[in-house]
Amino acid sequence: MRVNRPASPLSSFGPFSVRLGVLAVAAALAVGGCSSSSPSSAGAPPSSDSPSPSPSDAVPAVQDLGPRSFTKPGPFAVGVTTMTLPGDGAKVEVWYPATPSSVTGKPQASYDVQDLLPAALKKVFPPGFTGGVYQTDAHRGVAVAAGRFPLVAFTHGYSGFRNQSTFLTTHLASWGFVVAAPELLDNNLTAVLSGTKASGSAADIAEVSATISLLRSQNGSPSSPLAGHVDMSKVAAIGHSLGGAVSEAVAAADPAVTTFIGMAGATVGSFGQTSAGPDSKVPDKPGMLMVGTKDQVVDPAGIAKAYDAMTEPKRLVT
Fold this sequence. Notes:
Radius of gyration: 19 Å
Strand content: 15-25%
Oligomer: single chain
Strand order of the largest sheet: 1-12-11-10-9-7-8-3-2-6
Number of helices: 8
Number of strands: 12
Distance between the termini: 6 Å
Helix content: 10-25%
């Protein structure tokens, strides 16, 4: 794994190992404006029930910020809730920081991939089949920890689903982020397996922007458990593959987004592949791109081209 800001991105390509911790570092740095590896403020993240807030919010302060700072879970426990977009009814999974004591004795949340299968495929599985059930590092029905937390809008890839990357979304929440992942109704597992998927990214982009608006509304609603807990001045759009391309387009189109991370996205290889619309624009915001050097779907040279087109501050991870 390499984190670079080279004059020629292709010169940095070599063997790689992308670690989960790097993804968390990416979000932490990018939301803050892609800062350098200098310490944010004194004091290591506490492991107690009450994480120490920084002067501006409740995100844990980290000493000696670097590539391995976030390899372990953060000081927060993780809560999760499911919301619904008011427009098309798409589900949005939201993970958030909680205190460790609030999850004591509570079962871990799980999801069943069978719930996303078309009816015809569900019939294939015998009654009581649990092979598609996955346990996560989050808990339902727990309160949000005190403080305000930056928002991460995570977008799944083609034929994916909102819960597919709970290893990442729960990890980010444990470090003091509210993470919201919408179901892309045009390109999720259900749509692809049922043959109803749609072409074009307009609906996907709209769902991510609607998710950001939904969290803004929840933050301002006295009746919401997230009221006052979301720092809407720090919003990151992050996605994988198709979701990475969508996140980059949202960053270009939505003024609420302050930074972006495309994991094998970059409009699937380079910016400006369309002549109009968000896909035609390079986000003029701090951002980071990630790609595997042997990726057989997303061309690393295209990611390098997209990186060259980006404005500083920026990072390329190979």
